[in-house]
Write a structure and sequence with these properties.
The complex is a heterodimer of chains A (396) and B (470).
Chain A: H1 2-26, E1 32-33, E2 38-39, H2 48-52, H3 55-66, H4 71-85, E3 90-91, E4 95-96, E5 104-105, H5 114-137, E6 141-147, H6 150-153, H7 166-182, E7 187-189, H8 190-196, H9 213-231, E8 243-247, H10 255-259, E9 271-275, E10 282-285, E11 288-290, E12 317-321, E13 330-334, H11 338-345, E14 351-355, H12 365-372, E15 376-382
Parallel strand pairs in A: 6-7, 6-15, 13-14, 13-15
Antiparallel strand pairs in A: 1-2, 3-4, 4-5, 8-9, 10-11, 10-12, 12-14
Helix pairs in contact in A: 5-7, 5-12, 9-11
Chain B: H1 6-25, H2 29-45, H3 52-69, H4 73-108, H5 122-137, H6 147-155, H7 168-176, H8 182-214, H9 223-254, H10 272-278, H11 281-292, H12 302-320, H13 324-349, H14 353-372, H15 376-386, H16 397-405, H17 407-417, H18 420-429, H19 435-459
Classes of the chains: A alpha/beta (396), B mainly alpha (470).
Chain lengths: 396, 470
């Protein structure tokens, strides 16, 4: 029996170590890792430099890990072990998954430093104020719109023992809007708006770091109402008579659930505006005329979709032209929070331009405003990025 | 390359094993050794190919100096001295030059030197080389005239970068006359898989807890949290290092070598003296045989005995790293060992077991706090926090979170620190389990650990090896 078990041990070990490389060699290689939302790691070219400093082998190790047979299943098993077998509140080190609460991220601990926060918010407020001045110079009205990120919106849903960065979020929000107010910058704090609306769970996604389409709609409505009030315009605000909120039947993979390999089946669907009569428009992305659609999703209802359903994802520059000269023009810039808002806001304007400075680098935002001279400029930031001076926070 | 890497498990081993065993089975020992040597150099060069010359230089130094040292007499002594100086010189240059230059520039001013990158495993293979040289000079082993065999001894990949520190006398005969057997291969696989599991399932998981806690801003610390972090690190370093040693010993068995044991359940110790008999035994043995005993060991006056202990532990500390905290870490244990030997050792022996375990555990954990710290300032802050000297709360939310989040890891690590395997083996010996059942269960367990380890390797990016930096 001992001998037999020895043979079995050697056979099984050999079977694993010899089968895996054969499968890795023969299997068709995917280019993108769906759940990890990234491309498969690339092996660096083999040369003296990459060989000598070991980076070639390092990149090969990452590549091998990415093309490992049954990688998705293994990661799903790892997630299952963490969440279900070990019953960890935080799964895969990234997502808090409690009973009947949204999927929330683990937030890096940040010591409260009022002085540093004050300094940074002053710098950000000053940048925003300078942009606001440029807008006024060209006859535009400027609005800074602050939106809570999903974990910020649900910050009180974390159990007490899990850090939620509440003190920093509150301090940054208070200081930034105080300073904007003192500098005479027009702003909309959606956190306050949502609070006044009763902070419904429906306004935010359970499985993604963005708001839900309902949250985006409320933001759109608030912005346009404010423009109408301040500019004495009569931009049409879409409501129930114009469209229905329609659930897309495809399985929806939010960014949080993606990190849990979709193991946890939370029945959240993407929602879009289903218009009876949509305002016709011409869409141009980065100078290229596109199909006139704002929602992109596959016809096969079994295919997984994600937040890219809105506008097809992040684009450097998108221009909507509705050819109605009597209406004002608008410029919206910001991160992906702008995407579902863009699908609605263009309907009320002649020309709507949307910029994402993470992907657009032809002009600075002030140059863009001077060249375009819209009636209104909307800067949208989520509250985890109030002190982020990169991307759409890089105001030059 | 690390044993817990995909390239090692699924490229290196599948390439090496069939080639090696074809030659070994045909009885071509020199050829199979040459293959092992080539693969060992590839293994070493995988991460930093430019440092292969360092190991080849070490081989050359030790081969030539041992060759001449074997002549004995004045010439032999000169060769021994030259060999030791060159070995230590190489170690000092690569491992300690930055530290020495930084300290000199702090005292005397200046800009220090360009950073010298340390080749991995240099402390291990330098000590192995020196043990060969000294043993040849002392006539304990015969000089090896074939440089390829010296190269194989020094660079043999299983123990190359993190030990155990194998002495030439341990494997002298096996280099040319060893037998790869079915039960040796099977035992080797089992030992390797268990070591892999200790490393990737336990050490990496509990290491994440240590990392999460100890890298937190101090404003989030509490007394219990710092203890939790250091205890997590205490488990991590044990499972990391002993797991690696198990893998090394297991791989050695697959190729017919019998490497010495390196750990013997150190955390069940009832004193620090006992702890150091159970922890990193090959390093302790090396210092005992090549430093402590030549200095006179304990067969001398009390003052000299204390001096010898201090020297050995100062060197042990410095061996672990070029930083002041390692110096203090070594001296910390020297002081405790001296106290146990000369002051309260007898008193300690009279205490109940549980008190002795607590005594050892507290001192071991405190020692790891010094060891973990990047500098003495950090170490002092940790120790002050652990012993209520930083006006921190006793418990906070972070403690509760980490206890809940890592409860399974802490329980698993605690249980696996105990000699559970030994208990099971003794039950089998006492016929409590039937032998066939034991073999089936063992095979299933080992393969389960192996597959789960692969799952953890692919599923986690946290895969450090603490002892690589030594």
């Amino acid at each position: 029996m001992k001998r037999l078990s020895e043979i079995i041990m050697i056979f099984l070990f050999s079977a694993v170590i010899f089968t895996v490389p054969v499968v890795m060699l023969c299997e068709e290689k995917a280019e993108k890792l769906l759940y990890e939302n990234r491309n498969v790691a690339e092996v660096l070219p083999f040369n003296n430099e990459t060989f000598g400093d070991g980076t070639f082998f390092e990149s090969a190790e990452s590549y091998l890990s990415d093309i490992f047979p049954l990688r998705n299943n293994i990661l799903a098993l790892h997630t299952y072990i963490d969440g279900t077998i070990l019953n960890k509140p935080v799964i895969n080190d990234v997502v808090y998954q409690g009973d009947d609460v949204p999927m929330l991220p683990v937030v890096a601990h940040k010591a409260l430093d009022e002085e540093a926060t004050d300094r940074k918010t002053e710098r950000m407020a000053e940048s925003i104020s300078r942009l606001s001045d440029v807008c006024h110079e060209v006859g535009s009205e400027f609005y800074f719109v602050g939106i809570p990120e999903q974990y910020s919106y649900f910050r009180n849903r974390y159990p007490e023992y899990i850090y939620n960065n509440k003190e920093n979020l509150e301090l940054e929000e208070r200081l930034l809007f105080d300073k904007l107010n003192k500098k005479g910058v027009r702003f909309i704090n959606m956190n306050m708006v949502f609070t006044n609306m009763g902070r419904s769970d429906d306004l935010y996604s359970y499985t993604d770091h963005h708001f839900s389409f309902e949250g985006a709609y409320e933001t759109y409505r608030t912005i346009v109402s404010r423009i109408n009030a301040d500019l004495k315009t009569d931009v049409k605000i879409l409501d129930d008579d114009d469209f229905d909120f329609k659930e897309v039947p495809n399985p929806y993979l939010g960014s949080r659930n993606r990190k849990l390999m979709g193991v946890y089946d939370i029945p959240e669907k993407a929602v879009i505006a289903d218009f009876a009569d949509r305002v016709p428009f011409l869409r141009t992305d980065n100078g290229k005329v596109m199909e006139s659609v704002v929602y992109t999703y596959p016809m096969d209802p079994a295919e997984i979709i994600d937040y890219m359903i809105y506008m097809g994802g992040d684009v450097g520059e998108t221009i909507f032209e509705t050819h109605r000269d009597e209406l004002p023009d608008i410029l919206v810039f910001g991160d992906s929070f702008t995407n579902p808002i863009e699908t609605l806001i263009y309907t009320g304007f002649d020309e709507t331009r949307c910029i994402d400075l993470r992907h657009y680098n032809e002009k600075t935002i002030t140059e863009y405003v001077r060249d375009f001279s819209p009636d209104a400029v909307i800067m949208i930031r989520d509250d985890t990025r109030y002190l982020d001076f990169t991307g759409n926070g890089d105001i030059k | 390359m690390v044993f817990s890497g995909i390239s090692f498990l699924f490229i290196f081993l599948p390439l090496l094993l069939p080639i090696y065993f074809i030659f070994a089975a045909a009885g071509f020992r020199r050829a199979s050794n040459l293959i092992l040597l080539i693969f060992s150099l590839c293994f070493y060069g995988y991460n930093m190919p430019r440092f292969i010359y360092v190991i080849l230089l070490s081989v050359l130094i030790n081969y030539l100096s041992a060759y001449f040292a074997s002549w004995g007499g004045a010439k032999g002594k000169t060769a021994l001295t030259a060999g030791i100086c060159l070995n230590i010189g190489m170690l000092v240059y690569f491992k300690y030059a930055n530290f020495i230059a930084d300290n000199l520039s702090t005292v005397f001013g200046g800009n220090g030197i360009h950073e010298i990158i340390m080749p991995i495993g240099i402390s291990f293979f330098t000590f192995q080389g020196m043990s060969y040289l000294i043993d040849v000079y002392k006539g304990k082993v015969r000089v090896q005239k074939n440089p390829l065999n010296v190269a194989l001894y020094i660079s043999l990949f299983p123990q190359l970068i993190a030990g155990p520190i194998v002495r030439y006398r341990d494997i002298e005969k096996e280099i040319l006359r060893r037998k790869e057997t079915l039960s040796g291969i099977s035992d080797g696989i089992a030992r390797f898989c268990i070591g892999l599991g200790k490393k990737v399932i336990i050490a990496n998981s509990i290491g994440k807890a240590a990392n999460d806690i100890l890298s937190l801003d101090p404003s989030f610390h509490s007394v219990s949290l710092v203890w939790l972090g250091i205890i997590a690190y205490t488990f991590q370093i044990y499972f990391d290092f002993s797991g690696y040693s198990d893998m090394a010993i297991g791989l050695g068995r697959i190729f017919g070598f019998h490497f010495p044991e390196n750990f013997n359940y150190p955390y069940i110790s009832e004193s620090i003296t006992e702890f150091w008999r159970r922890w990193h035994m090959t390093l302790s043995g090396w210092f005992r045989d090549y430093v402590y005993i030549p200095l006179g060991g304990n067969r001398c006056s009390r003052a000299k005995h204390i001096r010898n202990i201090l020297i050995v532990w100062l060197l042990t500390g410095i061996w672990h790293g070029a930083a002041w905290n390692f110096v203090f870490w070594g001296l910390y244990f020297a002081v405790i060992l001296i106290c146990e030997k000369f002051i309260y050792g007898r008193f300690l022996e009279g205490l109940p077991h549980i008190i002795r375990h607590i005594y050892s555990a507290v001192l071991i954990v405190t020692g790891w706090a010094i060891f973990y710290s990047p500098d003495m300032y950090f170490a002092l802050r940790l120790i002050k926090s652990m012993f209520f000297m930083n006006s921190l709360p006793f418990v906070n939310n972070e403690t509760i979170y980490n206890l809940i989040e890592y409860k399974a890891e802490f329980v698993a690590a605690f249980v696996c620190c105990l000699p559970v395997g030994r208990v099971v083996a003794s039950l089998v010996r006492e016929n409590r389990f039937s032998e066939p059942l034991f073999h089936i269960m063992r095979t299933l367990f080992v393969m389960g650990v192996f597959l789960l380890s692969i799952c953890f390797i692919v599923g986690s990016s946290f895969n450090p090896f603490i002892y690589f930096r030594f």
